[in-house]
């Protein structure tokens, strides 16, 4: 249920997530390889955080609304549309839900974008963003290392490093890292197992 | 009618929210801290020096409850003076750390403070000891305080063995600056103490001289 999400924008978007699913306070790992980066449309992906049950339910509804919306508009949905659908669901049901999302994607109108929908239903656009329980440990790293207009490889390396550092410190983040790169030409999903992640001085 | 007509800072416990860190290099150590002391949501001191001297070449960095941390430092300062007179020479850093640890462990239920002890002695050179909750462990570097959570990733990535004194100082200042940016309980100015065989240097870096990052 705890996890980590990271998005950084280059000319496409790279989304990284690390996987561990642990029930509340007993730290039982129910799965080490859950994918928390869900595709809601061809070039729009969402990272889930918080209660995974809530997040999955919200995303299922959002996927439906979005595909209906895109049929009505007769074109691919904009990234902000996907984010807004999530925001409406999170805000209107804020008392019952405990889920946050990072929505990232590419559309023809505004290119690559990243939107954060927080727990209460706030929606903001950002260039780089992190979320989940493990994110507290890498605020310093992201602030120091992120530069605007990095290349695709630099962005991927940055996301992988940040995930590895957070997984190294957060006891409820770990397992494998899922990385998705979204550009004009499509989306690529890679999985990096824990032992192939970069190692730092104390490992 | 509300009972609480007094300002909140009179009733809230005074904590040094804090970011503290210490790192050893070949021949000495560098200690760093922020300068914010908070009581609830109020900042009651924005220029407090949290690097406290225990002996000529041994300092400690304070975090947690301000009163508890200061008291531990004062008591250990006294105990170290007595000890160094008894042995007739400068005390070892490990002795100072052990004294701090003994108090932290014995009174662990009553106290809530974490001190990082660092210094230089003739036998083992520069050393950094963490004494959280009553343990004693020597580490190449140690971070502590509420702001430290935000910079674990940064220090893990940036620390390398065998850094020079200047690189260590730069590392400490960057780390403090990043933590002060993100942690509401850390802020103000950065205090730096560099201890090596020849001298003990105290430095203050004012807010606007701290390194800035992409969103500032």
TrEMBL record, chain A:
Keywords: Cytoplasm, Hydrolase, Protease, Proteasome, Threonine protease. Its EC number is 3.4.25.1. GO terms for cellular component: cytoplasm; nucleus; proteasome core complex, beta-subunit complex. It comes from the Eukaryota. It catalyses: Cleavage of peptide bonds with very broad specificity. The keyword Cytoplasm applies. This is proteasome endopeptidase complex.
Automatic annotation (TrEMBL), chain B:
Gene3D superfamilies: Glutamine Phosphoribosylpyrophosphate, subunit 1, domain 1. The active site is at residue 18. It catalyses: Cleavage of peptide bonds with very broad specificity. The keyword GTP-binding does not apply. One of its GO terms (cellular component) is proteasome core complex. Keywords: Cytoplasm, Hydrolase, Immunity, Nucleus, Protease, Proteasome, Threonine protease, Zymogen. The keyword Iron does not apply. SUPFAM superfamilies: N-terminal nucleophile aminohydrolases (Ntn hydrolases). One of its GO terms (molecular function) is threonine-type endopeptidase activity. Belongs to the peptidase T1B family. Component of the proteasome, a multicatalytic proteinase complex which is characterized by its ability to cleave peptides with Arg, Phe, Tyr, Leu, and Glu adjacent to the leaving group at neutral or slightly basic pH. The proteasome has an ATP-dependent proteolytic activity. This is Proteasome subunit beta. It comes from Periophthalmus magnuspinnatus. The lineage of its organism: Eukaryota, Metazoa, Chordata, Craniata, Vertebrata.
């Amino acid at each position: 249920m705890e996890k980590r999400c990271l998005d950084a924008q280059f000319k496409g978007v790279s989304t990284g997530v690390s996987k561990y699913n642990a029930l509340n306070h007993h730290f039982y790992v129910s799965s080490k390889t859950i994918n928390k980066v869900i595709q809601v449309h061809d070039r729009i992906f969402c990272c889930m955080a918080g209660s995974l049950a809530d997040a999955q339910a919200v995303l299922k509804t959002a996927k439906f609304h979005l595909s209906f919306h895109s049929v009505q508009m007769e074109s691919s949905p904009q990234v902000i549309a996907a984010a807004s659908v999530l925001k409406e669901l999170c805000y209107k049901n804020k008392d019952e839900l405990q889920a946050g999302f990072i929505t990232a994607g590419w559309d023809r109108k505004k290119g690559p974008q990243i939107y954060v929908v927080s727990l209460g239903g706030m929606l903001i656009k950002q260039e780089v963003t992190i979320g989940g329980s493990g994110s507290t440990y890498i605020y310093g790293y992201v602030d120091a290392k992120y530069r605007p207009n990095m290349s695709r490889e630099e962005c991927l390396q940055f996301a992988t490093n940040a995930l590895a550092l957070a997984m190294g410190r957060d006891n409820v983040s770990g397992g494998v890292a899922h990385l998705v790169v979204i550009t004009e030409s499509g989306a690529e999903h890679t999985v990096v197992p824990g032992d192939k992640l970069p190692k730092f001085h104390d490992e | 009618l509300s009972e609480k007509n007094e300002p909140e800072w009179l009733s809230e416990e005074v904590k040094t929210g804090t970011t503290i860190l210490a790192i050893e290099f070949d021949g000495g150590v560098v200690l760093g801290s922020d300068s914010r002391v908070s009581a609830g949501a109020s900042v009651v001191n924005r220029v407090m020096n949290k690097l406290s001297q225990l002996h000529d070449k041994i300092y400690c960095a304070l975090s947690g409850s301000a009163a508890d941390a200061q008291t531990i430092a004062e008591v250990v300062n006294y105990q170290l003076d007595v000890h160094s007179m008894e042995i007739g020479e400068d005390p070892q850093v490990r002795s100072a750390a052990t004294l701090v640890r003994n108090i932290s462990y014995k009174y662990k239920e009553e106290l809530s403070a974490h001190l990082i002890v660092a210094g230089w002695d003739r036998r083992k050179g520069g050393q950094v000891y963490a004494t959280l909750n009553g343990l004693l462990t020597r580490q190449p570097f140690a971070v502590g305080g509420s702001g430290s959570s935000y910079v674990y990733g940064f220090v893990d990535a940036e620390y390398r063995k065998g850094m020079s004194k200047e690189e260590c100082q730069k590392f400490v200042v960057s780390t403090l600056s990043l933590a002060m940016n993100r942690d509401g309980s850390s802020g103000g100015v950065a205090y730096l103490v560099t201890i090596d065989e020849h001298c003990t240097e105290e430095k203050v870096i004012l807010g606007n001289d701290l390194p800035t990052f992409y969103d500032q």
